[in-house]
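Readers of this paper often ask what the protein records in our data store actually look like. Below, we set out a record of this kind in full and without editing:
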Amino acid sequence: MTHLEEVVRDLERHTADEGWDAPPRLYALVESAELRRQEPGLAEQLGLSADSDTIAALEQPPLPDAVSIEEALATIVWPEAVTGCALVVERVVLPPAVEEQMPDDDGEALAWLAEHPLREEVRMVVGVLRDGSRHSALRLRKHDSVDEVLSEADLVPALADALAATLEPESEH
């Protein structure tokens, strides 16, 4: 298992322990050696020993409520010391054929979605690294069990793309 897979799975388990209906959470992913070099006190607080070779997930301040996650991510540029980033977010999804039936009005769409019998509540954890690595974990609320978590490289490609864009130099945004 890669370090990215480990951190995504750890974030998924940690979030699951806290329950559902949580706001989105954004994490900077930093190599443990880099964190020990730049922030030795924080590395010690996190229990990163001198010989540990892992990626630490550092939770960031909450994303603004006034904009979509995609809009908020478009404003972020990570410093070079950040190896990658991860996002934990809950969504309601529908089968693609049903999505076409959704009302255009946002207010009507939310009410329609809340009552639709085929809706699925999911928690997604998506992580990306500067080297292009990606990993995702997905848990359905109705199958809320560690044994039922899907875990693959690219379960949520659009979200992974948005996260990867935050790792590009500012001139490329």
